[in-house]
Amino acid sequence: MKQIGFLINPIAGMGGPVGLKGTDNVVEEARRLGAEPSAIEKALRALAKLKRLCDDAGITDDLEWLTCGSSMGALALEAAGFDNRRIIYTPGDPTTAADTKAAVTAFMYERLTLILFCGGDGTARDICSVVGSKIPILGIPAGVKMYSGVFGASPLTTAEIVFDYIQGKLDLAEGEILDLDEERYRGDEWAVRLHYAALTPFEPTFTPLSKMLVFAASDAEVQGEIARHLVEEIIESPRTLFLLGPGTTVKAVAEILGLNKTLLGIDAVVAGQAVGRDLNEQQIAALLEKYPLCKVILSPIGAQGFILGRGNQPLTPELLWRIGRKNIIVIATPAKLDRTSMLRFDTGDPDLDRVLAGDGFFPVLIGYHERRMVRVLV
């Protein structure tokens, strides 16, 4: 019988939709702004698919789940229908990083095949601070950032990785545990560092690499070409709201317009003038009421390929349904695309992800009036 340790960070990702760029040390502020927990729902989505896969293969009874009480694991396993579970740690309320570390310490006394967790980079870091590389880990993505290389591309693909791994179909690889300093991130400074190296089941299609900083000597020139193309479109569409996502490539657009854009937030422009800066979900919704015509400009995360679902959570599924696939403009330099094998969507809504993926390709603006069709993981 294979034993799987399972835990959820219930507050992971709460700060994203309300524009806090994370949840570290700001849980109460996130709640005050109307943030709702989403990690448990994402964990349940992964567990439900894993249960179906295991039932079809007749191996459900071959698994024993070791978990934490209440919202930190047990309730999701029960809802997914995994009956062979054992609670080995009872957390406090609300849960904290100390609960994660205590739970993982309890896991260390068992003979685990895998630790499956639901959270973000901070959760991965807390786990690895205890287990190091002694037990393989795998994350169901539920945080704001998730730059580490130990997460599945989405809750559903994470389930497939677990299923293949427990059947011996996948090998282990070393995944980097990266974490961003959220205090500096909220101040519009990207400060990430490598903390640990962990063992993780690796499937190249479903396990994104850790975030890669991609820059070629010609990138600045190409970014300028992309920016000039988009500035023309912004000026020629004076009634259209343009939402500018995070990243240096998008920031170049604002610089040509003479605007001081946040590097890591979502800003808004109409007719070349700023109408919003570092927006949260509610602020974007208010702008959409005023400006029904809207386009979003986004750039994928280098190497990982995520367009939505990493660092831009104020663009919630509800907002994206209103905006529509045809109004999403993806931009990237050729150097970044050369190191990014495919694009990915992880909005939290599988139906929306499928719509955004379309026929499996997405146009990417790579220069002045120059586009490349890039494969999307469907």
Characterization of this structure:
With 378 residues, the protein is an alpha/beta fold. It has two domains: 200 residues, Rossmann fold (3-Layer(aba) Sandwich); 157 residues. It is 34% helix and 23% strand. The chain contains 13 helices and 16 strands. It has a seven-stranded mixed beta sheet with strand order 10-9-8-11-13-15-16, with helices on both faces. Strands 3-2-1-4-5 form a five-stranded parallel beta sheet, with helices on both faces. A two-stranded antiparallel ribbon has the order 6-7. Strand 9 and strand 10 form a beta hairpin. About 2% of the residues have low confidence.
Going across the major beta sheet, what is the strand order? 10-9-8-11-13-15-16
The CATH topology of the largest domain corresponds to Rossmann fold
Low-confidence stretches: 212-217
Number of strands: 16
Q: How would you sum up the global shape?
A: elongated
* SSE series: EHHEHEHEHEHEHEHEHEEHEEHEHEHEE
- Share of residues in strands: 15-25%
Tell me the major beta sheet: 7 strands, mixed
CATH architecture identity of the largest domain: 3-Layer(aba) Sandwich
